[in-house]
Amino acid sequence: MKKVMILEDEVNIRSFVVINLRRAGYEPIEAATGQEALDKLRENPDIGVAILDIMLPDIDGFEVCRRIRATSKQIGIIMLTARTQEMDKVTGLMTGADDYVTKPFSPAELTARIDALFRRIGGDNTVTSEILSQGPFVMNLRNHTLEKAGVRVKLTQVEHSIMKLFMQNPGRALSREDILSAVWGRDYEGELKIVDVNIRRLRIKIEDDTANPTYITTVWGYGYKWGA
Ligand code: CA
User: Is the pTM of this model over 0.85?
Assistant: First the structure.
């Protein structure tokens, strides 16, 4: 069974998530503190997706996310945010997360996001051997690696999927909706803003000058275009 970790210190919310994970066919792994989450992850390296609350008694969820990302690029990470938290601050801090869900959330909403992350992780495994090469960029679809001028660029799963989409569609303007449905899946019910959050992060990793992007260019009022 696919393992999903839920890090949440509020027992009621945690139990609610656990029940719904089981109902959706996932094996839930529970953690009530940041430290417990990191320990559980070491014990269960096969956890596919981690759901992280932000306000915790010990280490906050952003820091937990950062520490998980330092050791694993493969795992899917969903942040649980409160409506009262300023979204700009949240998205700015979401350095390694793939998605976020705002409390209160419906079970269907959460499991749709988890399903989408698992689909992406699983879907990429079907690729046997393929190299995409454009400008200074070389993407190896089998090894999930990206190099820029021979130097490895470390990407999250989502960033890798976006780069793949761009490199498979050079010169074509892709709408935010195109990117969302290709990367997050057609059933994804989240906000388009998540596309911009991830593009901003990708630019920091791959552009020569983030203030004047030349590889991922903005198509105003529409989306983005890959121009390497
Ligand atoms: Ca909390």
Answer: no
